[in-house]
Amino acid sequence: MSAQAEKRPWEHRDFTQVRPYGDTFDDGMIQLSFSLPVPPGEEAAEAARQLVVQMGLTDPAVVHQHDLGEDFTFVVLYAKTKATVDFTKIKVAKVDSPRMSFYEINDFIKEQIGRKITIIGACTGTDAHTVGIDAIMNMKGYNGEYGLERYPMVEAYNLGSQVENEEMVAKAIELNADAILVSQVVTQKDVHIPNLAQLVELLEAEGLRKKLILICGGPRISHELALELGYDAGFGPGTLAPDVASYVVQEMIRRELK
Length: 258
Known about the structure:
Blueprint: H1 3-7, E1 29-36, H2 42-54, E2 58-69, E3 72-80, H3 102-113, E4 117-123, H4 131-137, E5 154-158, H5 165-175, E6 179-183, H6 192-205, E7 213-217, H7 223-229, E8 233-235, H8 241-254
Parallel strand pairs: 4-5, 4-6, 6-7, 7-8
Antiparallel strand pairs: 1-3, 2-3
Helix pairs in contact: 3-8, 5-6
């Protein structure tokens, strides 16, 4: 083997046996962090090491611990795994719609739909965090992209936070909405699952489910989960207004919801 090949082992990597790495390619090194209900110190570090070994990892090394107060400790450590994954067999459900620009989306609506479309959005249930829905809906937008309120061919209604599902359905009926966007940011104990499912049930009961586009998004939302819950699409972190709008207008045409 040449010296060049020795320096670049990743050029000959096997995608059927992918393993994480830290300092050296394929060394199996991973970083973990968690909190323990014990006071900081050597005993806490040893407890963390023993837990990691029981997880099947090797060579654990605690690199940081922080006193959280009241005899709780936050621990960061490195360890190695022998586990691999066959990357060639991974299949992930993804939203399948080409992303268009602000101008392309508005032109598409004019030419293909022929009228303004109505989109309502909110954080539903007990969720009070509007960062995600504001990034999509508000006129100023986020990260260089306008929000839907800026789109001349979109009537956008941001209902804010802690909106009950019944209120969302009533608003959809009042405004004859073409799409509903639901943001779920705070999802401790998976409270977002029954909340998202309930909205679908309410829409079905009103005979509206097939008449509009239903989308959910948030840090723990995937397209696969959204489909399982009865939504048309799910968007995760980093989603911007053009991603959502592109999907909505193309799906409206596909389902003949003009």
